[in-house]
Amino acid sequence: MSSFFSNSIYSIIQKVLSVILSFLTLMLIARALGPEGQGKYSLLTSLSRTFLYFLSFGLNVGLVYSFGKDKSERQNISKTYFILILSLAGIAFVSSQLFMYTFQSSVFKNINQGSLLVASISVGVWFFNSYSSSILSGLEKFKDIAIANFLQSLMLTCGIIVLWATDSLFLSSGIGIFLTSLIFLLFYNLYVLYKSDFRVNFFKSQFKKSILVNNLNYSLKSYLGSITEFLIYRVDIYFIAYFLSKLELGVYVIAVNLVERIWIFSESLERILFSKLVNMESEQEKKNKISILVIKTNFMISLGCGFFLAVVSDLFIRVFFGDEYSGSVFYVYVLLPGVILQGTSRIFKKILEANSYTGTNAKAAILCMCLNIVLNLLLIPKLGAMGAAVASTIAYTIYFVSLLIGLKAKLNIKIRSVVFLSITDLRTVWDFLKTRKLDKN
Q: What is the mean pLDDT of each run of 10 residues along the chain (441 residues)?
């Protein structure tokens, strides 16, 4: 368990530092570009991640799963997935260009062609970053992943600071720095892989269809859950961009960026927990014990962070972003309950995936995605961006309840045992911190 403890600490530290850097970046962009420019920047950066989720078909999760389940085939797994990722990256680039051309007069209105092109290139780079990070995850090199992600955030922030200090921070230059930071992340990941004990040999390894066939069912179910989950997170941005002005989108995005920082702990733990559970060969009871402890700890931390954010958000937004973003505070209050629950749902999802119950997550995600889309279509035209906030909170709550029921049905994890820490749990956490083991056996 020492590696699990160390990886968790490294990942949390990286997430906290990245949050600090991302807020500095967000603040400079928000002040330099104003709400309307901030809305356009957020739309373009979100677009690159959207196409990654839509066209990756769960290959990143499947790669990590394959590495844990079939260690002797890792060379062939790496080559097989690389060829697919290369093909999908090209398809994603072309698809993003067609998408932006189709909605140029509505969603992407008044955004220059250069910025749109850079956003499309970012899509392809995301695919290769996902591939390299997945291999590192399969090798459980989370310290290296944490360092890489921090350096990418640092480079982005430094670039934005330079542009801001030289009065050169515009939409096109900001998106350019964003792409540059992603390219840097890719080369750093490749450098880490080159220096690691495991090196991909594309000449001696083979492309094996059997690898894909054996994991196809798992990958597609995971993909279905991931894509629908991503739409739950981001579909509101596209609906606001379509129905409302970029100014309203910019104000709403500030609130979303603020409340989603609560997820730094779940984001840090979910990938590590997934890899740990996949690689464990112990009995289900011990896996459940680890899972429940992580769930409870994450929930209590998220609850505390949410309460703190509710108290300071008004002052924080006015001081760091300016009075023109003061409307974001109301969105924060509406989004907070759902975001707190969703942080725990992220852990639920990885536990189910690690135990091969990807279909359970997919069903819950599809239900909530459909609900979220319907609510956005109904509420945004009537309530504006506040309708999107209400829709998100309702969808997050339903998703939480659905996955909680799934844990009870599939893994016999009792519902009452996954929320608050008991005295016994606190004693276990304390022993964990001292010995880096969940038990002495």
A: 55 71 84 84 82 76 70 75 83 87 79 86 86 80 80 90 89 91 90 76 72 69 72 83 84 88 78 68 68 80 88 88 86 93 86 76 83 93 93 92 83 64 54 46 39
Is 175 within a domain?
A: yes
Residue owning tokens 């100014």: 247
Residue 357 phi/psi, 5° resolution?
-100, 55
d(CA 172, CA 176): 6
Residues 115 and 83: their CA atoms lie apart, in Å, by: 28
The Cα 87–Cα 55 span in angstroms is 10
In three-state form (DSSP H/G/I as H, E/B as E, the rest C), the secondary structure along 245-274 is CHHHHHHHHHHHHHHHHHHHHHHHHHHHHH
**Helix/strand/coil for 356:** coil
Q: Please, is 39 exposed, middle or buried when counting C-beta atoms within 10 Å of its C-beta (0-12, 13-18, 19+)?
A: buried
Quick one: which of 94, 96, 92, 67 has its CA closest to 81? Answer: 67
Give one DSSP letter per residue of 182-224, joined into a string. Answer: HHHHHHHHHHHHHHSS----TTTS---HHHHHHHHHHHHHHHH
- Do the Cβ atoms of 84 and 216 come closer than 8 Å? no
Task: Tell me, yes or no, whether 410 lies in a domain.
Answer: yes
Q: Estimate to the nearest angstrom the gap between the alpha carbon of 428 and the chain centroid.
A: 29
Q: Is residue 196 part of a domain?
A: yes
Q: Which residue has the tokens 């989004």?
A: 335
CA–CA distance, 70 with 67 (Å, rounded to integer) = 6
**DSSP-assigned letter for residue 58:** T
Give the three-class secondary structure for 321.
Answer: coil
In the chain, the number of structural domains is: 1
Q: Which residue matches tokens 């931390």?
A: 301
> Looking at the domain assignment, is residue 441 inside a domain?
no
The pLDDT score that the predictor gives to residue 432 is: 47
Its pTM stands at 0.68
Which residues are CB-neighbours of 436 under 8 A, at least 6 positions away?
Answer: 1, 2, 5, 6
Task: Please classify residue 120 by burial: count the beta carbons closer than 10 Å to its beta carbon, then call 0-12 exposed, 13-18 middle and 19+ buried.
Answer: buried
**What's the domain range around 153?**
2-435
SS3 assignment for 93-105:
HHHHHHHHHHCCC
Provide CB contacts within 8 A for 26, sequence distance 6+: 254, 257
